[in-house]
Specification:
Length: 683
């Protein structure tokens, strides 16, 4: 089945800061085993643009998909001590201190963020006949104000002017390095920080900034060495422990990183670094599946920042990974209610609600996000996806249509048209679906996913020749994709052209021997042709590939049927029952496996065991057809036991579920006549 694809914008989605889903009558005694087990119709789902399009091979696990996308939020390395600007103070560096009254006033205004007043004071110094050092200090502060405002080029200009007056000031060089870092000019930042260290090699903050720059350059080993060197001199430095842990994580040394995160948290105890460290540990243990430690650390982080939205979100993710939906929702709701929820976190909450099946809350979160970000194709696509999954295809269609209006003739529009075509096909508007797919192809003619879906709509609309032609084009575009061949084979199979289907499936198996579906479908064809040895072999191969899938589990059930039919012996019966037990271990309470168990017991004339299994199958099933067959087989068991009254009752219940089944009525009439004869003899 096709999948609606999620539109992704041209740019990458901003992550949450990260460093981070019956033919025989009573006289034959033969219970109804039904036809070889088939796969139920696959549920259409929603997958991300760029993901593998699984139209025929298998259904995508949407829950896992979205869960996997919900990355716990992690504070970045930036923002620690080494990123702070150098500000002259009585206890700090003397490099930016001065007795100049305008510098003193300007500095006080700067610290209070009265930038206009500060600039006025510093300008007074720069335009005066003050000495070079004081003018350099004033220019440095003006650079810091520009940097605070995000005008990094202006900040760089001020710092360079300051250096022209005082080229040996390590604090000016440090601030210049920080401005270069903020503007992502990392090589230049590295150059300036080296100069600053040449002058003041023991300055801890400058050494930390150097480590942070190395980290952002991707030089994680060098960054780790830099941080380790600092710890030799200042062993109780919690920010450096945290940064060293982050560097070790980037190198893949999670074990050592965890130890340093622990040390950072224990050292800082209740500060910002402790919060970051415990939050990060919670995330690591969540990803490891060690939820006890994950919760312990996330609760520590929450105790430090009880009103922090991200840590509650992360705790919710840990609960969701354990299937504790109610606990997860509680944390998500609390997270959303807190102030300061970033757009990135709001998007994560929308995804989390979606994964929990809380479509209303998910829609609310993404609607809020749309208000914040305005016309945004990714958010509109997600809203369309929510409407689709919550059973509102018209609204989903409209959301995707808006994307085609916002960004016509783009890749986003192409995927939106693909989604629109899928929705139209689902709602049986096949001709309109075809037109939507054609619009997608008009934007990009060589798209195999669109051609495959176009073929499916042609098939659904009763145009098989066009369907096969479309799949042929898709196969020519990408010979490495089995989906078009499987779609063609599926059409032949569904319409009883078994020889043609077999030919296609053989082709797929020869090229992709590890794909399960062609082996399973070949087994079904052999089963229908009563070529049981071939069918048995193919079912076994399908189960070997992966017995835990639906096709694998159904293969085990069909293997049991064939094994029991090959020879009525205790050994064959035991072997067949073992296959069914395996199927039930994979899916406890599986009505098809329980029904098959009843069939096998019936064949061995173990009627009470059979009746018990049929009743279990009825209890576990939501399928009236299977329940009707089970009641029919119960009626046969009771008839063979001579309990004609209960046989009539069972056949009556079967007819209620399948009123059009004439054979059930004949069987009930036969049982009723036997009961009448029995009563006559008693009289």
């Amino acid at each position: 089945m096709k999948k609606v694809r999620r539109v992704q914008p041209s740019g990458e989605r901003p992550p949450i800061p990260e460093d981070e889903l019956l033919t025989n009558r009573i006289s034959s005694i033969t219970p109804d085993a039904g036809p070889p087990s088939r796969l139920s119709g696959r549920k259409r789902g929603l997958i991300a643009a760029g993901a593998v399009l699984l139209l025929v091979i298998a259904a995508a696990a949407a829950l896992l998909l979205y869960t996997s996308k919900m990355k716990p939020s992690v504070p970045a390395v930036s923002g620690l001590t080494g990123d702070e600007k150098a500000i002259g103070s009585l206890s700090g560096s003397m490099s930016l201190q001065s007795d100049n009254i305008h510098i003193k006033r300007g500095r006080e205004s700067y610290l209070k963020k009265y930038y206009a007043d500060a600039i006025s004071e510093f300008t007074e110094v720069v335009e005066s006949d003050a000495d070079s050092r004081d003018r350099a200090i004033a220019l440095t502060y003006m650079g810091m104000i520009a940097d605070d405002r995000g005008d990094y080029e202006k900040a760089i200009d001020y710092y360079r002017r300051a250096l022209s007056l005082d080229d040996n000031n390590p604090e000016i060089l440090k601030n210049l390095a920080l401005a270069y870092r903020h503007s992502n000019r990392l090589e230049e930042a590295s150059e300036q920080i080296s100069k600053s260290l040449d002058i003041s090699p023991d300055d801890t903050d400058t050494r930390i900034l150097r480590g942070n720059i190395l980290f952002e350059q991707g030089k994680f080993r060098e960054a780790a060495d830099a941080y380790a060197g600092i710890l030799e001199d200042t062993p109780g430095n919690a920010p450096v422990m945290y940064n060293l842990a982050s560097s070790l994580m980037k190198q893949g040394d999670e074990f050592a990183a965890v130890e340093y995160f622990k040390k950072a948290g224990a050292t800082d105890r209740i500060g910002d670094i402790a919060y970051r460290a415990y939050n990060r540990l919670g995330i690591i243990f969540t990803e490891r599946g060690n939820f006890e430690l994950a919760e312990e650390n996330l609760r520590k982080a929450a105790s430090i920042r009880p009103n922090d939205a991200s840590v509650k979100y992360n705790l919710g993710i840990a609960y969701l990974r354990q299937g504790r939906k109610e606990d997860a929702l509680r944390e998500f709701i609390q997270s959303e209610s807190l102030s300061g929820v970033s757009p990135e976190l709001l998007e994560g909450l929308g995804d989390a609600y979606f994964s929990a099946g809380e479509y209303g809350r998910s829609l609310s979160a993404f609607s809020r996000l749309l208000e914040i970000k305005g016309r945004n194709v990714r958010i509109l696509s997600r809203i369309g996806e929510i409407y689709y999954e919550s059973g509102e295809p018209d609204k989903a269609y409209e959301a995707f249509r808006k994307i085609t209006m916002m960004e016509p003739a783009t890749e986003n529009a192409r995927i939106a048209y693909l989604n629109m075509g899928n929705i139209l096909d689902d709602t049986m508007h096949y001709d309109e679906a075809v037109e939507a797919y054609k619009k997608a192809l008009a934007i990009s003619p060589k798209e195999e996913d669109v051609l495959i879906n176009l073929g499916l709509s042609y098939k659904h609309g009763g145009k098989p020749e066009l369907a096969v032609s479309s799949w042929k084009k898709a196969a020519e575009l990408n010979p490495q994709n089995p989906a078009p061949l499987l779609a063609t084979a599926g059409y032949y199979y569904e319409n009883g052209f078994f020889d043609l289907a077999e030919e296609q499936y053989r082709t797929v198996i020869s090229r992709w021997p590890s794909l399960q579906e062609p082996h399973y479908k070949m087994a079904m064809i052999y089963h229908k042709k009563n070529q049981l040895d071939y069918a048995l072999s193919a079912y076994k191969r399908a189960a070997e590939i992966d017995e835990k899938t639906e096709m694998g589990r159904k293969s085990l059930i069909n293997i049991a049927y064939i094994t029991a039919d090959q020879k009525e012996s205790d050994a064959n019966f035991d072997e067949a029952m073992n296959f069914l037990k395996k199927a039930l271990l994979i899916k406890p309470g599986d009505p098809e496996a329980l029904f098959a168990s009843g069939v096998l017991y019936s064949k061995r004339q173990m009627f009470e065991n059979a009746v018990d299994m049929y009743y279990q199958a009825i209890k576990a099933s939501n399928d009236d057809s299977l329940s009707s067959k089970a009641y029919g087989n119960i009626g046969k068991c009771r008839y063979n036991q001579g309990d004609f009254q209960r046989a009539v009752q069972a056949f009556t219940r079967a007819i209620e579920l399948d009123p059009a089944n004439e054979e059930l009525r004949i069987n009930r009439k036969t049982a009723a006549q036997a009961r009448e004869n029995e009563l006559s003899l008693e009289r």
